[in-house]
Sequence to fold (904 residues):
Amino acid sequence: MVSYADYFARNRDAHLSELKEWLSIPSVSAESAHKEDVRRAAEWLAESLKRAGLEHVEIHPTAGHPIVYADYLHAPGKPTVLIYGHYDVQPVDPLHLWQSPPFEPEIRDNKLYARGATDDKGQLFLHVKALEAMLREEGTLPVNVKFCVEGEEEIASEHLHPFLEANRDKLAADAVLISDTELLAPGRPAICTGLRGLCSLELTVRTASTDLHSGTYGGGVPNALHALVSLLDSLHDSEGRVAVEGFYDGVPELTEEMRAEFAKKGIDEEKLRQSLELDALFGEAGYTFAERVGARPTLEINGMYGGFQGEGTKTVIPCEAHAKITCRLVGTQDPQDILDKIERHLCSHAPAGAKVTVAQREKGRPYTIDTAHPLLRQAADAYEAVYGARPVFTRDGGSIPIVEAFSRLLSAPVVLMGFGLPTENLHAPNEHFHLENFDKGLMTIVDFLRRF
Amino acid sequence: MVSYADYFARNRDAHLSELKEWLSIPSVSAESAHKEDVRRAAEWLAESLKRAGLEHVEIHPTAGHPIVYADYLHAPGKPTVLIYGHYDVQPVDPLHLWQSPPFEPEIRDNKLYARGATDDKGQLFLHVKALEAMLREEGTLPVNVKFCVEGEEEIASEHLHPFLEANRDKLAADAVLISDTELLAPGRPAICTGLRGLCSLELTVRTASTDLHSGTYGGGVPNALHALVSLLDSLHDSEGRVAVEGFYDGVPELTEEMRAEFAKKGIDEEKLRQSLELDALFGEAGYTFAERVGARPTLEINGMYGGFQGEGTKTVIPCEAHAKITCRLVGTQDPQDILDKIERHLCSHAPAGAKVTVAQREKGRPYTIDTAHPLLRQAADAYEAVYGARPVFTRDGGSIPIVEAFSRLLSAPVVLMGFGLPTENLHAPNEHFHLENFDKGLMTIVDFLRRF
Fold:
């Protein structure tokens, strides 16, 4: 049998150089100024898939960012695996908190630092290189493989959804394989069996037709910032529960069995608190951290601005204020229904003199897979063979909005085989990828595909 | 007798060209990038004073922006008038709302548009040109005159205060004359007899040591924006009253006489509401708009920011949030005491997991002058002679923090002889100065100085 360990060791420097090249392309899907960079990242991936030996490599334009397809269908009678990932990345601000520039990848202490290093270019790259290795060393693959990689995961996969609907036959598969989740901790693998849904909105509050002098008008007119903080503060009660009417409809209560499963993650809340340099954790009363994040819905303000933000003082009464809000959803919470409820709440709580506008954005449903599925056992065996530890079945608090759609539209189980770590600052400054999991990830993927 | 009306008509174009030149210098005192521009604006003024015939023109450097001094002391036995003003201006954002660039002065519909047009370069310029006119036409002045003009009025006059203390003899005067206030409306002059004090602070809320992913952590950790909105919302009750303990100590209750004086302003609240395009005015219950602005203290959020402000969505839990707050003070409210009370309130209301930092900034006391003072009658006579209408004695809601200091340190009455209008967008986009009051202002100042 081929020693893939040797192969990957021999090619490690070349692989990392290649990945760094990809990570240098600032494919920030949320910012239109980066549209061209996103396209370049797609082209880079397509070339990389071709070099790996994949066939029918195609870049599908969409009204947004393109989708990259490729396949290798030379294992008749064997199952077909569809590998999904995304080549777009989150915005980078606040830029001044990065120790090295986000698009100048740098290895420090066996960690690769760059925006996208772990979410998701780094993890997707493992699949490209695992398949390339098998094709080079054995000349063939043990299964049929398809790639479907998008550039809009960080902005809610708007165009992937219709693409899936329109290409069910082309994408048909027996399983979907995704690496965009996390181990529990170094050396402690995990398979994610549930993801929260996601919905988002932008809130604008307007008062007068112009900013006003706080001397001439102060005390006699509404202030858009006062109205905004009053509205936003009304969204939670003092115990951290969302105060929007009907928000918790469809949220399943935790069973004792689920609580036991969450407890297995063995999160030390005091250590977690210290590692985040927090005075205190905070969340819904009656739940542990793991339960709050894994099984409870949230409403978070992600950004907020209005009035004077420069140096010094400006004695102004701002006439406009803005907030960005996202919710994580669980159970049968429906994103459209939740957005409508929040919008109703905001409009009905508008203070005197404040005009409220709500723009609804993303809408992604929650997803779960039965922990008894045979594919999950095979994935667990592969992890165990490489890591020497049996993975835990977890529910991650994150959202990969398209997972539920893949599962529903292709009628296929989705295996979430992640190699990130919870401490890798995804969506934050100094995102990085531990190279130990780069090495083990390659081996685990090869092992998993051979078990099919 | 000399016809100053003819003189000013003859020189109008030249005067406006000169003023436009001064207004083109972006002397934004709050922004360090404009430090050099602020200095250029001081030099421009010094040259203008020299050309007008003033003597001993000096630019006094300070640790901040310079102070311009000049005098003309050739009226032995006559009183001395100290003219104060400021050549610095407010920041210009939001820039996109300006119809013409803020530092490219433009006359439209007999109004001069530019940052600083009315606050305060335009109004101060009237004094320079009024004195120049008298010196050219009569060769002398009916009183002794001193100029003391600063570049830090919009940032709380930090260095003027010690300058006044150190130069009491040099600045000694029988009256201080300032044009930095407003008429009631076109053709309806007013003399301001009271100004609110001003104090300011910046609030920072921090939670974790870094921004966190709202999937991985959402629901289990504090969010700096949630903490900020909760803190800011706690500063007012739902009736618009400031909810900080002891805030209203030292605020005099309105007498029936004062209420009658405010009613004289004849503010039509419905018209005001419409002109500001507001759904509703808003303020403390039990007071009219004029009373709220003229005689009641305020606490306003002037700016606020945190988290993601770019295009699209970013699923982040921000670890840092900021707000800028100013208060307008009345009666015997002491700025230091008020800032301490707010700081105590904010620190004691900090939600779980939120670290609160308060930076205290400006501190200026309220000011009032007795409406029976003989100088006010002379000023009223001058207005009446030019405008054909007797001015009303008003209390403006604004603050000129140095007025109280001038009055106290020089033991001199301060006459606030303003030529602005409440609709001139000071501190906001599209600031402008009605040229009708440019013309009448020149005449009123000449008339007033001749009555001394």
User: Anything to note?
Assistant: Residues 35-52 of chain B form the longest helix (18 residues). The domain at 4-195+366-451 of chain B is CATH 3.40.630.10 (Aminopeptidase).
